[in-house]
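Recap from last week: sequence in, structure out.
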Amino acid sequence: MKIGILSRNPQLYSTRRLAEAAELRGHEVFVIDTLKCYMNISPANPSIHYQGENLEGFDAIIPRIGASITFYGAAVVRQFEMMGVYSLNESVAINRSRDKLRSLQLLSRKGIGLPTTGFAHSVKDTGDLIKMVGGAPLVVKLLEGTQGIGVVLVETRKAAESLIEAFRGLDANILVQQFIKEADGADIRCFVVGGKVVAAMMRQSKEGEFRSNLHRGGTASLVRITPAERATAVRAAKVMGLNVAGVDLMRSGKGPLVLEVNSSPGLQGIENATGKDVAGMIIEFIEKNAKYGKTRTKGKG
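Predicted structure tokens:
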């Protein structure tokens, strides 16, 4: 097979591992810088060009789209879909997962467990918004934040009111979310491939920090997940429409709660913590499922 990996940096661990895994299985692999692609949007013959050449003959693409380039990255994936190329994660699903508010609304509609979450535009009812999520302490999240950036734990009601008003004064879109004390600064990353949890790790925040992201100094270890956690992760990925997803869960007294569904989950932490060849599992999934024109949305939406 001829496989394209859409990634801005061929040296990133995840990109290298996917390329190595594909080559080990006899495939032809090309790492393509997403932002250097340009498109011919034609009804008769849609195409993508890269470094002066027409990108033709690809059987599948693996989108590794960073949050900062979601708009353009999804457009490139959509163009490949219009050309009949199989995409591991489709453009519509990527956009769904990147819109934090939309993703939470979709998960909520399907009855999947979530921390109580509030969203508002006006600051006039900040007090009621805080009350709605259970009061302080609470978590304030920027909608555009990634890797734990723009996530703040607020200890008191007064501090929460000041922070929410400050963010809204900057015209920033924020979520106000219930703080799950019993999680004790830990969450679980479930790696879903093709409707199955193939690996799971627990991420623990460093001392004095409540965010468990590895980029924030958190540590990762192998974890045994419960049937309920496994089922929740699989359902969350399915709701987003993602074939490959990193589903972040938190353990609570009410059962597993979904924090986020990531459409480009990193491989380094999960492979190091579990010792599993997750990259190889992804390539194996592509081998079994990649077919010309096999795109549920056909680039629509």
